[in-house]
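Troubleshooting: if your tokenizer reports a length mismatch, compare your output against this known-good record of 585 residues.
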Amino acid sequence: MKHKAIVFSSIAAGVAFVVVFFGLAIFNTPDINAASTADFKAGDIIDDETFYNKDSMTVEQIQAHLNKYNPTCDTWGTGPVGSGRTINGKAVPANTKRADYAKQMRAAGKTRYHDPPYVCIQNYYENPTTHRTLFDSNNKIESGMLSSAQIIYKAAQQYGINPQVLLVMLKKESYAWGDNWPLKDEYNTVMGYACPDNAACDTKYYGFYNQVMTAAWQLNKYKTDWENKTFKFNYRPGAVNNIYYSPTTSCGKKQVYIENIATASLYIYTPYTPNDAALKAYPGTAACGSYGNRNFFMYFTEWFGSTHAPAKPAQQTQPEQQTQNQPTNSQTTEQNPAEDKPAENKPADEKPAQTTPEEKPAATTPQFTSNDKILATWKSLGAEKSALGVATSNLLANKYTGIWFQYYTNGAIVGNDKYGYYESRGKIRERWQSLNFESGALGFPTSNILKNPYTGITFQYYTGGAIVGNDKYGYYESRGKIRERWKQLGFESSALGFPTSNIYKNPYTGIVFQNYAGGVIAGNDKYGYWESRGKLRDYWKKNGFESGKMGWPTSNIMTSGKNIYQKYSRGTLYYNTANGRYTWK
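Known-good structure output:
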């Protein structure tokens, strides 16, 4: 029952999405076929013949599979909720009926909990046009509704994807799989589609039908773009690709020769490869581990057998390793262009820039060329004695965003004539990459990397904000109204100190927040963005954050005599520093 573990608050909201995107499902592991992680091959997770076999299952076979691995359903919530439940710190009796528990949770401000029916995945029906489901029809199948099995089959046939692949992805990405009394919102992101690591899921792709169809569309697009020579994604078949072990870039990365478009597609969708510890820990977790592609391989093998067709063609010979400083195909990109549908980790076009008479190449080293403006930036930084080192690529460009860039030993110089040309390196560059380079909310760099000698913060400005931090607290985005509030409070010299997270949004309450060493800035456009820290934050947390009786903060923290106080949308909280008492008015 995975949904009971989803806790959204001003601290936890962003974390939940990261877990989904990793490939969260490690429960109800099937046991048909013997499988071993020792057989996992990072560059050949599944072959094309298997991945694109749209006729591997009928609707009836898909339904039978759903029934087998989701055998029970407490549709009306009459079963006991079980032990270990609490509501606002108070234990809930284990024999409490689930429907009653949902009522109590809703009364406590947990609005995602609702009355029955609770529609399990094997029983799910949805109208593809109106998107009415059994949740909306009191569990009555209406005209025009399709079953979950029919939707999976339709997506497989329409986009040429093996329905076995869709079933495996459904399990590894979904909270609804294996839950015998799922809530309606568990179907919002069942395929993890449009749910990046660093932002909230895109609500316009919510729902079982939308998720399954768009996920299949996306997997098909990778293949058709490759065949049509319009491929613009990070991970390429027939090439050595640098793939991170997890979203924590300090965990490192691995050079992987990807052997086919199916495996490349899995990495574009879930852009991490498991480290040795994660493989050995299956079905559990490990330090610096990621599990989406590991779980895909294991679930598929355990359910359906080998991920490779019996008569697989001979594999292409792997090319020689490239030199340490020479960028691979997956590295010659600065960002991800927009597409007609969003997709995780969509990279830039990877064609060398065509120079013009106005930008005649100038030599930087005997083997690489640049343009005058990038060369001028490099020289201003100290040329080969700078932190960047020497050039390791020719001048490159992304025609979708208009950025020009050149790689160096320890980073790159990036920019264009509008915003200028600046260094991009180290942990600030890693953070910019995780935020989608110039295609993200930060946009283009507008300064080199700078350091405040008084506070020890390192930062770089962008058109949409900044990346700030240090090695102790990490490096994070700072932008928009949250950055304006942080600036008003005194940046890192204030009581809040340094950022310790990116900016996240809780889709259930609409609150936007960013964590800091000394607290949080939280709010929305209606109530504004305000600090939350110390004793007042402790009380707000205890009372359910913005979902509880207090609502949203509507002021900063203020002082009156021995009282510190803060206004909220539903009242004002006072804390007496002399006697430690709280007063809520």
